[in-house]
């Protein structure tokens, strides 16, 4: 035969609009908290006055309340907030006049009616003052124009990189490895367009149109454009290399998630799967893209050495020539430093958007 149910110690306090309950249970597991017919039903496993057991209780409220309590579990206790249906002060918590033995006032949060009215008045005054301050801040007359520009920019970039990705994927399935060798001649015009347009991201950051930090944008955009225009664009011998396929493919996959995320952010929409993809796919793709760029630079060094292209002879008694292959070797070091800078920046962003949040349960 089952024994009487165990009841935890419960402390309560009120405001004009809320009821606060503090349940003295630690290490709470599997809490089941509902309100039906104005009665709160509680059942949970936890460590209370009778050790680690299942505890339960019921409270029939004096006046009507909303049926959706908000609960917050901590290591030492469980807090429940219940909204009153009407803003007023109750003379007691329960419908029955005699207070249940497990229930006691929460003196840490207890206020008399006059004190609670003063607190409510202060909150309303604070809200009014905040509205007054916000009304004094001049509104940006170009706000909608800026938002429209950012939406169009991100949409165009998304469509451009989508075209690149789809085109390369279809060609890969149809032609197989043969598609590696003519990627540049097929895709370069669209990639030139997208990467030239990407320079606007630096301008957007400079004039404060977006809150993105300037240095990571400069590192990524100038790094890509250096590979695209200086190395691939100037050396026909490099344009038929398989590494071009991998560079373009890794770039395009990354942008397939970045630009839609920014576009939706402009209109205040956050789609959680897209947010996760935007701050996760870069983890394998960014190092792979950087490695592909490094391979491209290494493969171009012998060609630049043979042709002498972009090497600069200085008119001086020593007849010193600045060899462009040497510049590329220095750039390789800068490339990996840039990858580290951007990797660190992206990791901080991922932690900010996908990091752990306070545990709440409704």
From TrEMBL:
Q: Can you say what this protein is called?
A: Very-long-chain (3R)-3-hydroxyacyl-CoA dehydratase
Which Pfam families does its entry note?
A: PTPLA (PF04387)
Q: What class of enzyme is it?
A: lyase
Q: Spell out where the chain crosses the membrane.
A: 149-170, 214-232, 244-264, 324-343
What InterPro entries does the record tag this protein with?
A: CS_dom, HSP20-like_chaperone, Tyr_Pase-like_PTPLA
Q: Which GO terms describe its molecular function?
A: very-long-chain (3R)-3-hydroxyacyl-CoA dehydratase activity
Q: What is its EC number?
A: 4.2.1.134
Keywords recorded for this protein, A-Z: Coiled coil, Endoplasmic reticulum, Fatty acid biosynthesis, Fatty acid metabolism, Lipid biosynthesis, Lipid metabolism, Lyase, Membrane, Transmembrane, Transmembrane helix
Q: State the species of origin.
A: Lepidothrix coronata (blue-crowned manakin)
UniProt topology in membrane: Multi-pass membrane protein
Q: Does the keyword Endoplasmic reticulum apply?
A: yes
